[in-house]
From TrEMBL:
<dbReference type="InterPro" id="IPR029510">
    <property type="entry name" value="Ald_DH_CS_GLU"/>
</dbReference>
<dbReference type="InterPro" id="IPR015590">
    <property type="entry name" value="Aldehyde_DH_dom"/>
</dbReference>
<feature type="domain" description="Aldehyde dehydrogenase">
    <location>
        <begin position="40"/>
        <end position="498"/>
    </location>
</feature>
<dbReference type="InterPro" id="IPR016162">
    <property type="entry name" value="Ald_DH_N"/>
</dbReference>
<dbReference type="Pfam" id="PF00171">
    <property type="entry name" value="Aldedh"/>
</dbReference>
<comment type="similarity">
    <text>Belongs to the aldehyde dehydrogenase family.</text>
</comment>
<protein>
    <submittedName>
        <fullName>NAD-dependent aldehyde dehydrogenase</fullName>
    </submittedName>
</protein>
<dbReference type="InterPro" id="IPR016161">
    <property type="entry name" value="Ald_DH/histidinol_DH"/>
</dbReference>
<dbReference type="GO" id="GO:0004030">
    <property type="term" value="F:aldehyde dehydrogenase [NAD(P)+] activity"/>
</dbReference>
<dbReference type="InterPro" id="IPR016163">
    <property type="entry name" value="Ald_DH_C"/>
</dbReference>
<feature type="active site">
    <location>
        <position position="273"/>
    </location>
</feature>
<keyword id="KW-0560">Oxidoreductase</keyword>
């Protein structure tokens, strides 16, 4: 093991099972076992030390073919024949295995993404387990419907059945690798599909561990597969593959658009969960203490690397000064440090390339005239570390990049408004529609605003609440389709309509058809 990693692990008493998991090359998980194929290795770096953690298999199209064959054969074999209640038991066993390995999984997220280990435990691991448990319950509740035909002559039986859509590819981003894997995996398994997951090459560890646990608790081989490698190789091969029936993608809008175009060539079912630039409206009637703390949590969680981060605040002129002062004070108190330090809230960004992208946004906010309130004061890339201080700009205008583009880092922009209609128009401007938040103690005002804001998820006096029973997904350039909630199930099911002509009826003739018309 690399010396810097060993020292880092020793400083935070990292359990030995974490060391054993990463102190070896990481392959793919295909057909129920780990395989080491592909073109050599990709270095996996730990974001706080910036040192090599391990090497992961650099997969090729041939690895995707292997995974598709394994997933197809499981679908046509034991998994396809398994009664729903048995699937439910397996999913609950997987959730239980993850609970018993919660410490390992939280460490894997913390050293892979660089995120706070406290958040990894309370949000990522707990959320992933809850999601599996919730969808386990759905396995036994997926029904078609029997209907009365309304225009057919004679006696018929007409009903629908819901069948698994088939082999699912799940492409996962690096910000919440375990949780977003669980969003796709749980619903797909509940519907009886088999899954090939492609984690980000930056964060493959938790997906590999979940696939191993699935094998250990008894999932038939080929039901849960992971293929590692570079996005534009493995992700592209999955999007183009004829043997894949459904693609569920979470990631950036530009990559999502490309993946969507490719997947249409083989007419795949498609879900796209993409980027955001979520507005936050703070009205004159807001409780500012609550608003400031929820806004800070909503934008600086995971060091700002959150798709629905509330990153542009519109504050009513009467509350703007006090809100800004509270935001500044709160941001300056957030503990900054290593992901493995349980006290840290702001931790390194995922890579040096991403740190540079965020710094570039900070530089543009400064050059476009936004007023720096706290945090980073320059967009210059003259540093080694990947940690950026929570940064706030005031006097942001809607045409500035800081108010138009997704930054995906610890950067918050603030602006003022006088007129509510104007605030709504400004909040609704832009291409995204993932989330929006409203802060007000007036219930009528919050309900009215929740109806006027164009976003898939609306938060009232809070930000970033997630629950497995609630669908999550965006509008506009934030994508389509839902993760979580019963609404997600349809994305993994094919509905078949069955018509039965009851024997003994006269055959259809033109007269019957005419009457039916
Ligand atoms: P990317 O779009 O860069 O990557 C997402 C996934 O796609 C990764 O697994 C990546 O692999 C893979 N990929 C990259 N290139 C291709 C390609 N040409 N074909 C197929 N797959 C490819 O996003 P990030 O990982 O940087 O994640 C951040 C983005 O995700 C943000 O825009 C964020 O808003 C969005 N997101 C959306 C959420 C939602 O629910 N709406 C939730 C969380 C994040 P690799 O990393 O190996 O290149």
């Amino acid at each position: 093991m690399n010396k810097d990693i060993a020292t880092y692990f020793a400083r935070y008493d990292v359990p030995s099972e974490v060391t054993s998991f990463v102190d070896r090359p990481i392959g793919h998980h295909v057909g129920g076992r780990e395989i080491f194929t592909g073109k050599g290795e990709i270095d996996l770096l730990e974001p706080f030390t910036r040192s090599r953690l391990t090497g992961i298999a650099n997969g090729t199209e041939a690895d995707v073919d292997l995974a598709v064959a394994a997933a197809r054969s499981a679908l046509n074999g034991p998994w396809g024949r398994m009664p729903p209640l048995e699937r439910q038991r397996l999913m609950l066993r997987l959730a239980e295995a993850m609970r018993s390995e919660a410490v390992l999984l939280a460490h894997l997220e913390a050293i892979d993404v660089g995120k706070s280990i406290s958040e990894a435990g309370s949000i990522d691991v707990a959320g992933a387990i809850a999601n599996l448990e919730y969808f386990a319950g759905w396995t036994s509740k997926i029904d078609g419907r029997t209907t009365n035909a309304v225009a057919l002559p004679g006696e018929t039986l007409t009903y629908t059945v819901k069948e698994p859509v088939g082999v699912v590819a799940a492409i996962i981003p690096w910000n919440f690798p375990l949780q977003i894997l669980s969003w796709k995996l749980a619903a797909a398994l509940a519907c009886g599909c088999t899954v090939i997951c492609k984690p980000s090459e930056l964060t493959p560890l938790s997906a590999m561990r979940v696939a191993q646990l699935a094998a250990q608790v008894g999932f038939p081989e080929g039901v849960v597969n992971v293929v590692n490698g570079i996005g534009h190789v493995i992700g592209q091969a999955l999007a183009a593959h004829k043997g894949i029936d459904k693609l569920s993608f979470t990631g950036s809008t530009p990559v999502g658009k490309a993946v969507g175009k490719t997947s249409l060539d083989t007419v795949k079912r498609l879900t796209l969960e993409l980027g955001g630039k979520s507005p936050v409206i703070v009205t004159a009637k807001a409780n500012l203490e609550n608003a400031a703390s929820a806004i800070l949590a909503g934008v600086f969680l995971n060091s700002g690397q959150v798709c629905d981060a509330g990153s542009r605040v519109y504050a009513h002129r009467s509350v703007h000064a006090e809100l800004l002062q509270r935001l500044k004070a709160g941001a300056e108190q957030l503990p900054i440090g290593a992901g493995l330090d349980p006290a840290s809230r702001i931790t390194p960004l995922v890579s040096s390339a991403h740190r540079n992208r965020v710094l570039n946004h900070i530089g543009s906010a400064i050059s476009e005239g936004a007023h720096p309130v706290t945090g980073e004061e320059s967009g210059t890339v003259d540093r080694d570390d990947w940690v950026l201080r929570p940064t706030i700009f005031d006097d942001c205008r809607d045409n500035m990049r800081i108010f138009r583009e997704e930054i995906f880092g610890p950067v918050l922009g603030v602006s003022q408004f006088d007129d509510m209609d104007d605030a709504v128009d400004r909040a609704n401007s832009g291409e995204f529609g993932l989330a929006a938040a409203v802060y007000s103690d007036n219930v009528n005002e919050t309900i009215r605003l929740s109806r006027r804001l164009k976003a898939g998820n609306i938060y009232i006096n809070a930000h970033g609440l997630l629950d497995p029973a609630m669908p999550f997904g965006g509008l506009g350039a934030s994508g389509f389709g839902k993760d979580m909630g019963p609404e997600q199930l349809d994305g993994f099911l094919a509905t078949k309509s069955i018509y039965v002509q009851i024997a003994g009826d006269p055959p259809l003739d033109e007269d019957h058809m005419e009457k039916a018309r």
